[in-house]
Design goal:
Order of helices and strands: HHHH
Distance between the termini: 57 Å
Number of helices: 4
Helix content: over 70%
Radius of gyration: 30 Å
Largest sheet: none
Low-confidence stretches: 1-28
Amino acid sequence: MLVRPLRRGAFFCAALSLLATPALAQMPPPAAACYCLKQAVDNTNADMGTKNAALAQARSALDQLDQQLATLRAQVDVNNPQSVAQFKQLLEQRDAAAKLASGPALTDSQTATARYNDAVAAYNGQCAGQPLPPPAGPIACPGQ
């Protein structure tokens, strides 16, 4: 007797949950989460800009040293130890600049770019095409 109404109630709840699932999936994500994702995009963009500027500076320094070496190479007197030492010193500076431009500066730039791309993908995956209403107050994002 009591079992039959319970079965109907369970069936009714199951049917309602199946009908409600598509509606829940279409609901926009909370605006706070989108603001946090937007903030992550902005922060990683700034970091990427800084790292790319450092890489550009390292490459510029390498280019300048390459030009100086090309000029000095034509003028070096191989019979003059001081002239050879000056050329070797400039060559060592160029090698150090090349290691920086192809090592840490490049790796930092690539890592920052990957983090930015990941942040953009996360934002686009959850929030793209949806208007963000102005925040009602300060938003506390996790990890910041």
